[in-house]
Amino acid sequence: MDYSSLKRFLLLATGTFLLLLFAHFSFHLPSNPPFSRSSPFLFHSPSVNTAKPASRNHETDIVSHPLDPLTIQEINIARSILLSYSPFSSSPSSLTIHSLSLDEPDKSVVRSWKPGNSLPARKAVAVTRYKDKPYVLSIDLSTKEVVQLPVPDSGYPTMTIEDMMSAPWAPFSDKAFNATITARGVRMSDVACLPISLGWYGQTEEGRRLIKIQCYSAEGTANFYMRPIEGLTVLLDMDTKEVVEITDKGNGIPIPSSTNTDYRYAVTKNNRAAWLKAPNPISLEQPSGPSFTVSEGHQVKWAGWDFHIKADARAGIIISGLGIIDPETGTRREVMYKGFVSELFVPYMDPTNAWYFKTYMDAGEYGFGLQAMPLVPLNDCPRNAYYLDGVFVTADGKPYVRENMICLFEKYSGDIAWRHSECPITDMEIKEARPKVTLVARMSASVANYDYIVDWEFQTDGLIRMKVALSGILMVKGTSYTHTKDVPSGEDMYGTLLSENVIGVIHDHFITFRLDMDVDGPANSFARVKLTRQATASGESPRTSFLKATRHVAATEKEAQVKLALYKPEEFHVYNTEKTTRVGNPTGYKVVSAGTAASMLDPNDPPQLRGAFTNNQIWITPYNKSEEWAGGLFVYQSKGEDTLSVWADRNRPIENKDIVLWYTLGFHHVPCQEDFPIMPTVSSSFDLKPVNFFEKNPVLWLPPNQEKDLPVCTATATA
Amino acid sequence: MDYSSLKRFLLLATGTFLLLLFAHFSFHLPSNPPFSRSSPFLFHSPSVNTAKPASRNHETDIVSHPLDPLTIQEINIARSILLSYSPFSSSPSSLTIHSLSLDEPDKSVVRSWKPGNSLPARKAVAVTRYKDKPYVLSIDLSTKEVVQLPVPDSGYPTMTIEDMMSAPWAPFSDKAFNATITARGVRMSDVACLPISLGWYGQTEEGRRLIKIQCYSAEGTANFYMRPIEGLTVLLDMDTKEVVEITDKGNGIPIPSSTNTDYRYAVTKNNRAAWLKAPNPISLEQPSGPSFTVSEGHQVKWAGWDFHIKADARAGIIISGLGIIDPETGTRREVMYKGFVSELFVPYMDPTNAWYFKTYMDAGEYGFGLQAMPLVPLNDCPRNAYYLDGVFVTADGKPYVRENMICLFEKYSGDIAWRHSECPITDMEIKEARPKVTLVARMSASVANYDYIVDWEFQTDGLIRMKVALSGILMVKGTSYTHTKDVPSGEDMYGTLLSENVIGVIHDHFITFRLDMDVDGPANSFARVKLTRQATASGESPRTSFLKATRHVAATEKEAQVKLALYKPEEFHVYNTEKTTRVGNPTGYKVVSAGTAASMLDPNDPPQLRGAFTNNQIWITPYNKSEEWAGGLFVYQSKGEDTLSVWADRNRPIENKDIVLWYTLGFHHVPCQEDFPIMPTVSSSFDLKPVNFFEKNPVLWLPPNQEKDLPVCTATATA
Fold first, then answer.
1. Residues 6+ apart with CB under 8 A from A361
2. Which of A152, B89, B176, B349 could connect to B506 by a Cys-Cys bridge, CB 3.0–4.6 Å?
3. CA gap B511, B664 in Å, rounded
4. How far is Cα A418 from Cα A687, in angstroms, rounded to an integer?
5. Is B348 a catalytic residue?
6. How near does any CA of chain B get to the CA of A601, in Å?
7. Is A362 a catalytic residue?
8. Segment A654-707, tens digit of pLDDT
9. Candidates B415, B494, B500; nearest CB to A583
10. What is the ipTM of this complex?
């Protein structure tokens, strides 16, 4: 594959001259020296001002924790082992490495490991394809032993970046494609195309990796997504680059105008209306530095919390070994062994030819971490943020660094941790309030048009909030309509007319978290505390009804499959079966749902079979190291044979066991004009909240803010 | 009523010596000169540092807007008119003034008023009782004309502060009460009592205002709420102070210990464990000052938004005349005429003798604004906050000032307004992100034990978030149990054992907002956009199903009564019937629900009849000036004859009309030990979100943060 010509194409296709200058900064292509940065290694102690991005020389990384990701050196070792592994050694160029990451030691080994202990054997797990045959291999980096692991019956591994970058380019050498584009009145030099996973609908030709290519005109805007060449779909063989089929149902559908589509500051600042004034500068300031420490690059400590954090090519952020110090006793208590985004499911709601297949599973198909770009200091994260990099692998096994992929910062928004004033009724002079400060770990994945912002927020009171925000750019549909009055009544646009010739198609977003809870250790159970109306016996009370809480412990997986319902309120407790509080309550954490959405698709519709992990909002499974990816290990073109739903329907016992909690956060998105040409952030979240985990309010001790402790600030000289 | 002895009692009862020094600061009793502050009037322009609380001499207040609340002078005028009004004039001491506030001019008058116009006639509306007979009077302050308005058939007005302060004191002169307390082993000097509204259960004696008094031991703690003298209930006549009945079912139930109950910093700071370290100072800083202005005390302008804000004795915060400048055209557009918390409903879920009647309606019974105490600078609101006062009225009609009742501040939490990066697929060098800054108006009401924090949050993208956070102290029940193992199986505690002898009783919170929407003016309709599964015709598509949006316009009130359901997803649009966007979409705002809870009580249970406004989460009614209080004008001992539910069941037409949106935010609260002895904040919210209101993303123009614009801060000298 020819990167320089690909770059040249993209340059033309996007019409931005910045590209030539900066294209290599965001993604180190193997063709460039990826690790040319010479900046010295910095150990970030709390006294270090961490406002600057962490600039670390990953060549010098040291492994200090069993869960530390593979270093550059380890990746190179693993790669050389793979290249000399039979059969790969006979034709190394026929080998594609789809992922190469740490093969984590067994949970029991990690849980018993203590700082100072020698590290368990370092192993890598590689997902590769050699001459079209998939391999999943565990590689011992010291003994160089390679063990073949089971391979799923259907589907393909996550696409490589090279797959995604080369596929859109392939049709350009096809005469028919050129003819079609020209027939649509678009200059080839203005064309930008996207690689779109095509799911599985029974008819997919077996035994080949296919992808659908759809194209846009980038003429006059960097936001080519708003200018679809509607109805044109190229079916491509991802490996041979053969154009299997070209479909163009878009004749007569104009390309939407580029007017008002560019969102870049360089463009908008020049035509900002006189009446629009930006707010005065406001900033989160902590000049004495953050309160958290990041040791050896991955081990975070803050306000009693400690955890291991790392970047993962598929999941994005992985949080491991989460524990918190009990304020009563000073002892550390376990909460969660491992938590991450396991899969996404994004079905669009247009059944027509060029749209029906758009049912993305972004983690398993595109790599949620691979798409996580460097965060923008001062804008993606506040000034007091600390940044972590990711180290990923190209298709030929070479390591590269994704800079500033994760940020960590303390957050204070003016909210209140707890408060009480005595009121005029008692008129006691009590006015106690405490500011709420939290720790946020953030990443943002840009899966082509869409941007997902994932926050892990840790509160001093023991609550953990998983928040997902959506921004970025809609996937829009071209139409000949320029006004709703032109739309024949009864005709379904499958969305909203956002601008002349532009339809925002209705779609859902589902983000499924895998949360391996270890509340005070692995011996956990799951209880559904059902709140139901209880009628009083006649004469028992002037009341005829009240709300009664009844605790039901789920014995098996099916008893723990939850469809939320406002009029069937429940609490969902993961609790320890051996430990209680002083007065006898089981120590637990509860899942607290906020706004969410459920999939409304037919459970037997092929996309819903593949996305069956969204059939419930909550699932509980017994711990199984091999059950990490809710849509299956191989999601690309999968048939739904290896999903959370399939595993859980085995209905295994889950009582008093090491259990895993799965939660799916959902959004229905009916686009509106405010989403054009780029969307204001929409977010939702869910919480893990301590429930009788602590003996009492764990933040009673928090001191109030006092003027003398706050920073002294002046407006900047340039203000 | 003897204030000094009441103070002495409370001093003993709470054991805090601060009280004697400061008791008068939080609530100016008529017996003190209420307005002794001499600090000069400050006009807060954006260039003024508003970190300091606003300290205004309300004697000099000038009325500059038709909706400005009554000034001290106006209250004094209204009072003198009332006192000389026949029949009151014959015995002024028999007159009780339950509320005295602005009688707002007709909506049409206010909407057509422009700055510079002369003000419409200033009128006050008084709710009074004279010789046990209620009067609702409109008083013209210039003509001195008094008009009697209709009086509800049942119920009583909101209690006066004097009612609430004197009732708990009344039983102390009763021998039987003293005997009971002594029999429970509590010293009279340690007793603190609360006035508890008793609702209505059919049996209430007619024609008298009754209240139930329950008591606590304040020995050894300021948090007497954790030490109930369980089972003791005194039924009291609020007017005669006659003890009607004493019930004590608490024999054998010990008073819980005071251990670990005090939460005040003065106490906790001395026994903080060594391993607990507060986070380093962090602060919201904007040294060049806020971007908002507050003109004439009530008119707020920020980032295109403008509205009128005032404190109200019953509702707390009232937001009026909300509009926003369209970034496309620079013209101002109406969004909402008036919004406020109309009522609360807080039923406890224990049907037994001492608990069944606890079904509070905090706004109509206690006064949500009357209970809103001064906010604590740096802790209730961040350093950059600006504070507004309230002016209220005592039972004899004298005005007093509630200082710092509302704060306004710009909020930046490190969140993102919108973003997009191009990903490795296209590898274009685009990294655009914008920080999210919002404006918050906040109050906190302490209704005895509970604290409600109400935020109105305004976003630059046109979204309005109504957020309610709960903190403060649980209303707990004494028990003889000290461990869950002592509880006989099958016995219902109606809650959770929080500590030895302390049960946190299950309860709900419902907060009902009245939102008089005027989206681009009063000609509005309400549409339910239903998202339903649509099956494809055979052969139509490889997909068998998709999600289809269908718009149903509600013609009458009943068609707009919404019970939310996750598996019946809908959007709820209030839209203008005369105005559309360029491409023909009706301009609207949608209600976006987040986490909420529904009342599960029997609809015919007396408390639910009174709280029937919680029967749906969303209601729409045609505008009616007299329909402001969802539980009725007279809520105390009401029978549910005058609620939102009764009005809306008339099923009036609401299409293409001036309509009012009602939204109820709910919480189920099953207490846990973390809520003892004071609760970490729990919050939820709902949004009003523009939907095709703007032609495109209204914050496209926002500039990114740049280092040169941010403040220069240093840790404080003492750090």
1. A197, A343, A344, A345, A346, A610, A611, A631, A635
2. B349
3. 5
4. 18
5. no
6. 6
7. yes
8. 999 999 999 999 999 999 999 999 999 999 999 999 999 999 999 999 999 999
9. B500
10. 0.93
